[in-house]
């Protein structure tokens, strides 16, 4: 009975989160006549978030001149946990070629996320989207969500599953 209740609660929270994020959207913005947004083909909307160590990461400077994989997720999400080894492997194998990875945890405490990062030996930076502002900006309707930016900061991939390694290698070689 305990497992059934736990699964019901996880399903309920997931559904609530997806509905909340689906109906909370921001308009795309224009900066210096360059269209920014959250859809494939647009320059990624900028944001600033704090890492679990309290350091600020600004997307524009973090991703500048690099292929960047943004991974939106949460510690309670089974699919998010399932893809961590894949993302860690991509980062380990491709970071010297210019791949940057940024985990973005949505609406969880620093303590919980820090413990999760340590337990899973996550080897890339993780930031906290405490108020889900960036998740709302990026129109997240389900997690995990993987967003890939090319070296110019343009969104080239936005899917709920990790990209193929070949796709990343092709972007890195351009």
Please describe what this structure looks like.
- This protein is 39% helix and 25% strand.
- Strand 4 and strand 5 (56-58) form a beta hairpin.
- The protein has a single domain (2-173), classed as Glutaredoxin, CATH 3.40.30.10.
- The strands form two sheets. It has a seven-stranded mixed β-sheet with strand order 5-4-8-7-6-9-10.
- It is of the alpha/beta class and 174 residues long.
- It is globular and about 55 Å long.
- It contains six helices and ten strands.
Q: Uncertain runs with pLDDT below 50, 5 residues or more?
A: 25-34
Helix count from the secondary structure assignment:
6
**CATH first level:** Alpha Beta
CATH homology group: Glutaredoxin
- Structural class by sheet pairing and helices: alpha/beta
Total number of β-strand segments?
10
> How would you characterize the largest beta sheet?
7 strands, mixed
Q: What is the end-to-end distance? A: 53 Å
H-E order: HEEEEEHEHEHEHEEH
Q: Compute the gyration radius: what is it?
A: 16 Å
Strand order of the largest sheet: 5-4-8-7-6-9-10
Strand content: 25-35%
CATH level-two architecture: 3-Layer(aba) Sandwich
CATH topology: Glutaredoxin
Helix content: 25-40%
Name the average pLDDT: 88
Instruction: Give the tally of structural domains.
Output: 1
Q: Which shape, going by the Cα principal axes?
A: globular
């Amino acid at each position: 009975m305990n497992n059934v209740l736990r699964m019901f609660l996880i399903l309920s929270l997931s559904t609530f989160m997806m509905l909340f994020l689906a109906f909370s959207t921001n308009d795309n913005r224009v900066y210096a006549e360059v269209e920014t947004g959250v859809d494939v083909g647009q320059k990624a909307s900028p944001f600033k978030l704090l890492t679990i160590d309290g350091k600020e990461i600004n997307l524009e400077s973090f991703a500048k001149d690099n292929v960047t994989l943004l991974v939106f997720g949460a510690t309670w999400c089974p699919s998010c946990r399932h893809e961590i080894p894949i993302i860690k492997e991509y980062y380990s194998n491709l970071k010297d070629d210019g791949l940057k990875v940024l985990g973005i945890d949505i609406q969880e405490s620093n303590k919980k996320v820090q413990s999760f990062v340590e337990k899973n030996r996550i080897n890339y930076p993780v930031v906290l989207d405490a108020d889900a502002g960036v998740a709302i900006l990026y129109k997240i309707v389900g997690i995990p969500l993987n967003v890939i930016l090319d070296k110019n900061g343009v969104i080239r991939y936005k899917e709920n599953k990790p990209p193929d390694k070949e796709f990343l290698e092709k972007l890195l070689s351009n």
